[in-house]
Amino acid sequence: MPDARQRMLAGEPYDAEAPELRAERAANHRWLARYNAALADGPERWHALLRERLAGVGDGALIRPPFHCDYGWNIHLGAGVFVNFGCVILDVAEVRIGKRTQIGPLVQLLAADHPRDPSERARGLEFGRPVRIGRNVWIGAGALILPGVTVGDDALVGAGSVVTRDVPAGATVVGNPARQRPSAPASGFAG
């Protein structure tokens, strides 16, 4: 029978408080403490620390501290990715960010999900759905990307948007819930 980590990675319901997952999160919390304490150290140190924990970190990829994630080893950053202050990535499933993507401050990429059935929630079960962000995407400050969403290459996500559905390549989405717009407005893309 697969353990909680194997079930989590397979996208099946799992107990987030299983001992093996608690231990993994504790190790990640120790790493996050070092990472977030390195704010004054600058980009070279941040990049080196990211390579210690994340699944993949392309050349020049950076996340400005503070940064928060569940495990780290489910996160892939393409070359030249820039993530501003205060990002949260719930990486219970794979989170991929394509090269040259720019992510504003306080953005949340959420792969963690919960059962809709109240009896399953009462048992403490969770599951994850991958989040994929394409190449050369711009995600404005405070946006939320929900579980299972793919944002296509060259797309724009407006500041404060809540993205509940896939975003086509080259599209501009804004609002809550995010809806596609014909072209990017002059403002609303802080990040």
From TrEMBL:
Entry annotated with the keyword RNA-binding: no
UniProt cross-references to Pfam families, sorted A to Z: Hexapep, Mac
UniProt cross-references to InterPro entries, sorted A to Z: Hexapep (IPR001451), Hexapep_transf_CS (IPR018357), Hexapeptide_acetyltransf (IPR051159), Mac_dom (IPR024688), Trimer_LpxA-like_sf (IPR011004)
Keywords from the named record: Acyltransferase, Repeat, Transferase
CDD domains (alphabetical): LbH_MAT_GAT
Residue numbers spanned by region Disordered: 172-191
UniProt xrefs under SUPFAM superfamilies: Trimeric LpxA-like enzymes (SSF51161)
PANTHER family per UniProt: ACETYLTRANSFERASE C18B11.09C-RELATED, SIALIC ACID SYNTHASE-RELATED
Protein name, UniProt field: Sugar O-acetyltransferase
Residue span(s) of domain Maltose/galactoside acetyltransferase: 5-59
GO molecular function, one term: acyltransferase activity
Top-level taxon in the UniProt lineage: Bacteria
E.C. number: 2.3.1.-
Family: Belongs to the transferase hexapeptide repeat family.
